[in-house]
Amino acid sequence: MARLSQTRQSIVALIRQVPYFEDFSSLELTTLVKQGHRQRLPPRQFICHEGDLGNSFYVILAGEAEVISELRGQFIAILHEGDFFGEISLLTGAQRTATVRSMTAVTLFVLNRERLGDVLQAHPNLAGQLASKLVERQQNLSSLGIVDLARLSTDVAMAEVCDQINQRFGVGCC
């Protein structure tokens, strides 16, 4: 039991560094981590595919993964411990914007849609925090050419993301 608690504490510490969760309280982070699970994958294993609908968010706890655009034949990035992906598709219902494959053995923290919904129902104020960070992330990815985001004002983008989160999780942002 002490080992599980120690592992959970180390995951909470790592998740706290993810921009989406930096404003969460310790209780909210612990609740979030309890809702997720760990997944171990061998090298060269596909984690998600570009174009698929995604229902999970991932944080790399150990190992490395590569992000590629199969449609563009483009290498995008290497992800390391503490890096995350999958949140755009999970929160908005959009298709995955890239393919992610393990380069080494990886351990992931995985939070699926149903479990995130449970967290948002218990802590509805978190939806606005997630939406704000998501708009920021989408704009950054758009400037890199990874996400095709119409040139929307931040206010319009925020309203659209809040609407999508409300439709998917039944929780308003404002």
Main sheet: which strands, in order across?
A: 1-8-3-6
By CATH, the superfamily comes out as Jelly Rolls
Helix coverage percent of residues?
Answer: 40-55%
Which value, in Å, is the CA radius of gyration?
Answer: 16 Å
Q: Report the portion of residues in β strands.
A: 15-25%
Low-confidence stretches: none
User: Pairing-aware structural class of the strands and helices?
Assistant: alpha+beta
Q: Write down the domain tally.
A: 1
Reading the helices and strands in chain order gives HHEEEEEEHEEHHH
What average pLDDT do the residues reach?
A: 86
Coarse morphology: globular
For the largest beta-sheet, the strand count, sense and barrel status come to: 4 strands, antiparallel
* Count of helical regions: 6
What top-tier CATH class fits best?
Mainly Beta
CATH topology: Jelly Rolls
3D structure, described in words:
- There is one protein chain.
- The chain contains six helices and eight strands, in the order ααββββββαββααα.
- The strands form two sheets. The protein has a four-stranded antiparallel beta sheet with strand order 1-8-3-6. It has a four-stranded antiparallel beta sheet with strand order 2-7-4-5, with no helix packed on it.
- It has one domain: Jelly Rolls (Sandwich), CATH 2.60.120.
- The protein has 174 residues and is an alpha+beta fold.
Short summary:
With 174 residues, the protein is an alpha+beta fold.
Structure characteristics:
174 residues, globular, 6 helices, Jelly Rolls, 8 strands, four-stranded antiparallel sheet, 22% strand, alpha+beta, single chain
